[in-house]
Design goal:
single chain; alpha/beta; Aspartate Aminotransferase, domain 1; Aspartate Aminotransferase, domain 2; 2 domains; seven-stranded mixed beta sheet; four-stranded mixed beta sheet; binds pyridoxal-5'-phosphate; pyridoxal phosphate binding; PyrdxlP-dep_Trfase; PyrdxlP-dep_Trfase_major
Length: 389
C-alpha cells in the first residue's frame, strides 16, 4: 500500500509531514515500515511518555476490550470507577472533582467553562507563547498569533501578558477576570519553565481578587517534570488544573480537575461528551496511573532528565543558543530553524519535534529511556548539529 500518497491525497493537509511511516512501537522505541528502529523523543507530542504499548496498559486494554468498550456517562462503569479511585490517589488534597474529556483541548474547554460558571465572569488572562489547544475556546487563550490569526475574532475576551514577568502580575490580574490560565512549563512555546516566583505572584494576586488560577498540565503533568504535577515543584496550587497526553498510554484523553470546594460546577445538561470516560480509555488510564505510581515515573524522569539536560548543555555546537527544561521535558533552542536538524536526527535514528515557533528542538522521551538512550540522544544531536571549530 502506498501509504504516503493515500494520506497526502485523501486527508486534508494541515501538518507538514515527515517522510516516515511508523509501523510499530514498544516502550521508548518505534520501528518504521522498513523495520528500522528509532529512539522516540517525539512520542506523538508527548503522548507515549509511559512507553509505546506499555505491557501493563496493553494487559488492561485487552481485558477491557473483551468486556465492554462504551458506557455513557449516564450509567456507571467499573473501569471508570477503578480509574477514578486510582487517579484520586495521585491528586493533592482538596482536588476532588474530576471532569473526564477526550483530548487536551476539551479539558481546557471544560476548565474555562467551569471558571466562568464558578465566578460568573467571562474574561481570561493568558500569556505570550502559551498553547492550550485548537478548539475555539482553547485557541482564545493560546498566546501564539500563528495559530490564532485566521480565526479572529475568537470567542472569549482574553488579555495576554509576558510569561515569567513577575513585576507585571499585580497590574494584570484584575478583578474582572474569571481566571488566569498558565502552563507550568510552556511546551509548544519552546520548553520554557515558569519561575516559582512568577507562579507565586500569580497565585497571590488571583487569590486576593477572587480570580481562579488554572494550571495547564497537559504536556508537563503526570510525572514528566519529576513531580506527578509540575505545579508541585513550583510551590503553588491552582483552583483548577488540566491533564491529558500520556495518561492513557497514548489513547485520547483529557481531564480537568477542580477543587472540591467548588462542588459539581455544572447542572445536568450544561456539560457532557459521548466518548468521555469510556471504559476502554479508562482501563488504559487506570493502568497508566499504576505505571506512574508503581514504577516511580517522577523520580526516573527527574534523574534521567537531569542527566540528559546536563549532558546536552555540554554540547558544543554553533547552532545551539541554550538548553532548557525540567525532567524529561527538554528544549534545545537554536540560532536557526529546527526542522532540518529534525530531518538529520531521523536519519540518525532519533525522533523529536519542533517547538518555540520552529526554533527549538523539543525532546519528550518516555520515562523508560536508559542511560544508553540518553548517550545515543546526545551523540545523535552532536552529529546532527555539527561540532564547533
Ligand atoms: C499545554 C497544552 N495544553 C493543551 C494542549 C492541547 O491538547 P490536545 O492536542 O490533546 O487537544 C496541548 C497540546 O500540545 C498542550 O501542550
Amino acid at each position: 500500500m502506498d501509504v504516503k500518497s493515500i494520506e497526502d491525497s485523501l486527508m486534508a493537509r494541515y501538518y507538514a509531514k515527515k517522510p516516515i511511516t511508523i509501523d510499530r512501537g514498544f516502550m521508548q522505541y518505534v520501528w518504521d515500515s522498513s523495520g528500522r528502529k528509532y529512539l522516540d523523543a517525539h512520542t506523538g507530542f508527548g503522548a507515549a511518555f509511559l512507553g509505546h504499548r506499555n505491557p501493563r496498559i496493553i494487559k488492561a486494554l485487552t481485558e477491557q476490550m473483551n468486556r465492554v468498550i462504551t458506557v455513557p456517562l449516564t450509567m456507571y462503569s467499573e473501569a471508570r470507577a477503578e480509574f477514578l479511585s486510582r487517579f484520586s490517589a495521585a491528586l493533592p488534597a482538596g482536588f476532588g472533582k474530576v471532569f473526564l474529556q477526550n483530548s487536551g483541548a476539551e479539558a481546557v474547554e471544560a476548565a474555562l467553562k467551569a471558571a466562568r460558571k464558578i465566578t460568573g465572569r467571562s474574561s481570561f488572562l493568558s500569556f505570550h507563547g502559551s498553547f492550550h489547544g485548537r478548539t475555539l475556546g482553547a485557541l482564545s487563550v493560546t498566546g501564539n498569533e500563528k495559530y490564532r490569526r485566521a480565526f479572529e475574532p475568537l470567542p472569549y475576551p482574553v488579555r495576554f501578558a509576558p510569561f515569567n514577568s513577575v513585576d507585571q502580575v499585580d497590574k494584570l490580574v484584575t478583578e474582572d477576570l474569571a481566571a488566569v490560565i498558565v502552563e507550568p512549563v510552556q511546551g509548544e512555546g519552546g520548553v520554557n519553565p515558569a519561575k516559582p516566583e512568577f507562579m507565586k505572584a500569580l497565585r497571590q494576586a488571583t487569590e486576593e481578587r477572587g480570580v481562579l488560577l488554572i494550571i495547564d498540565e497537559i504536556q508537563a503533568g503526570f510525572g514528566r517534570t519529576g513531580r506527578v504535577w509540575a505545579f508541585q515543584g513550583l510551590g503553588v496550587e491552582p483552583d483548577i488544573f488540566t491533564a491529558g497526553k500520556p495518561i492513557a498510554g497514548g489513547l485520547p484523553i483529557g481531564i480537568a480537575v477542580v477543587k472540591s470546594k467548588f462542588g459539581d460546577v455544572f447542572e445536568p445538561g450544561e456539560h457532557g461528551s459521548t466518548f468521555a470516560g469510556n471504559p476502554l480509555v479508562m482501563a488504559a488510564a487506570a493502568a497508566g496511573v499504576d505505571v506512574l505510581m508503581g514504577e516511580d515515573v517522577p523520580r526516573r524522569a527527574a534523574e534521567l532528565g537531569g542527566r540528559a539536560i546536563k549532558s546536552l548543555q555540554e554540547l558544543r555546537a554553533r547552532a545551539v543558543l541554550r538548553v532548557k527544561g525540567v525532567g524529561l521535558m527538554i528544549g534545545i533552542e537554536l540560532r536557526t530553524r529546527a526542522e532540518r536538524y529534525l530531518d538529520e536526527l531521523i536519519k540518525l535514528g532519533v525522533l523529536a519535534s519542533a517547538a518555540g515557533g520552529g526554533s527549538t528542538i523539543r525532546l519528550l522521551p518516555p520515562f523508560c529511556v536508559s542511560d544508553e538512550d540518553v548517550d545515543l540522544l546526545r551523540s545523535a544531536l552532536e552529529t546532527a548539529l555539527g561540532r564547533e571549530g
